[in-house]
Structure formats: structure tokens, C-alpha cells
Amino acid sequence: MVLKRKGKSSGSCARKASTCTKTAKSTQMKSHPDKATLSQMIQKRAYFIWEERGKPYGSDIDIWIQAERDILSHVKK
């Protein structure tokens, strides 16, 4: 799993993370996303969590699990 991306500022991180969560919320209202869409949503959320935490080395599994929880909590309702 690669969470690294260049050229993004941390100032826009919170805004984009909330957009990802909003996407999850709107997805729950319409229908359940397919596996590819769900995986992409989790990947984006994990990247934003990683950025928010200061891009820590070696925290990829913890961050991925948190991203799964965040997205799945909105999708499964």
C-alpha cells in the first residue's frame, strides 16, 4: 500500500478529508458502492489521515484500518 503523494499542501487536507467522508455519506443514501469504489474511497481517506498526522513512517496499517472504519461506518448504515 502506498500512501505517498507529492505536491499537496496540508492546508487542503482537512477539506479533502471531509469531502471523502461526505462522499461516503452520499453513497449510503443512494446505494452501496461496488468493491472498486469502496476501495478507492478507503484509499483516499487513508491518504488524508496520513497527511493530517504529519506523514508518519510505519503507520500505514493503523491508518488504513482507521480509514476503513471511517468509510464503512457511513456506508453500512
Q: Unreliable segments (pLDDT under 50, ≥5 consecutive)?
A: 1-14
Going by helix content, strand content and strand pairing, the class is mainly alpha
Provide the domain count.
1
The tally of strands reads: 0
Rg calculated over all Cα atoms = 12 Å
**Amount of helix:** 55-70%
Label the overall shape. elongated
Task: Provide mean pLDDT, rounded.
Answer: 76
Order of helices and strands: HHH
What is the CA–CA distance across the termini?
27 Å
Give a short account of the largest sheet.
none
Strand content: under 5%
User: Quaternary state, please?
Assistant: single chain
Features:
77 residues, mainly alpha, 3 helices, 68% helix, disordered N terminus
Notes on the structure:
The protein is an all-alpha fold and 77 residues long. The protein has one domain (12-75). 68% of the residues lie in helices and 0% in strands. It contains three helices and no strands. It has helices at residues 13-30, 35-52, 60-75. Helix 1 (13-30) runs antiparallel to helix 2 (35-52), helix 1 runs parallel beside helix 3 and helix 2 crosses helix 3 (60-75). The radius of gyration is 12 Å and the shape is elongated. The protein starts with 12 loop residues before the first helix and ends with a helix.
